[in-house]
Amino acid sequence: MRILVIGSGGREHALAWAIAASPLADALYCAPGNPGIAEDATCVAIAPTDIAGIIDFCTRERIDFVVVGPEAPLTLGLVDRLEAAGIAAFGPGAAAAALEGSKGFTKDLCARHGIPTAAYRRFRDSGAARAYAREKGAPIVVKADGLAAGKGVTVATSLAEALAAIDEALDRNRFGAAGAEIVIEDFLAGEEASFFALVDGETALPLSSAQDHKRVGDGDTGPNTGGMGAYSPAPCLTPALSEEVMARIIRPTVAAMAAEGRPYKGVLYAGLMLTEKGPQLIEYNVRFGDPECQVLLPRLKSDLLPALIASRDGVLKMFDLRWEDETALCVVLAAKGYPGEPVRGSEIRGLAEAASDPDIAIFHAGTRREGSRLLADGGRVLNVVARGRTVGEAQRRAYEAVDRIDWPGGFCRRDIGWRAVRKG
Length: 424
What we know:
By secondary structure, the protein is of the alpha+beta class.
């Protein structure tokens, strides 16, 4: 098969790395890719949202199957357009991608179908939103309705913080159209976890769990980011709890989407809060998590590509996947300044030495080549992934690899996996 992966981040590097290992993949391309992906695939300079350019390339290069990594082209209807052109693709169509494209849509769907999630209200008027926030008090959560690159959520610990978030979205237009409407929801107390399932329109096949670290600083301090690290599996999601998530959240969502004429195909990523009342949905994403994808795929024993094809073809009922028992842990190296404006252009050295251990994989997320030099070119720049028998062993190996990388312009959290390590 001739395969095209869409995207340029660490998630897409992990997908390309896994697909390149499949005996079904005769040729692998990535649009636009990055220097790390270029070691596994032929990179082509087409933006993920250039739908016409992608279709033209697929037609010209006789692409058999397209794997869409990021959320933006999914919400724009890339999969719909590809399928209409006779090109098979993995991921939801635009109508189903509303599960991530609109937080308000997802909250309303949960309310209609009894899927457990926090109580909420939707607002376009800042005055009404501020009055509601004052009535509810803090802690409270303020979310931009649309896609905001992981930066549209404020978990406000004070009323002042909540009012500032409302002002930024509705009055100052920080998120543009994505923040023209906001969702204000009750704060959920508990432990966060990420749960993934492949879906073929009717059947949901659970993958594995992960736990990521959203805050920029050690001890879960500082502003939210797209993710500073992750590990899989998440010990807090026991087999019994995982089945409860499937029974109360995932399967009802798949059935609800089908019943409402928006059948869902692709990977469904549920961000969960494990509360005293059981698991509750925080939000859905319609693609693999980043950096969760980078710890899921190194644990997958099975060939990834047939699973993605089965999801698209509607035959997951006859499918199964095998997983390694070990833990994978990812440390994100970010450029100084992130999650604000990152400092670009600093040189990175020592990756070959850092990745010399076979239990280490380094996925590129925001890099570019300038001759023989590798330079930082984004906020989250590298993902250092280690495998181990325990979370503690994987953590130790990951940070040993991090310390072999020569990059004064970068930083990372030093406590990825701390919850699981603390529990022993």
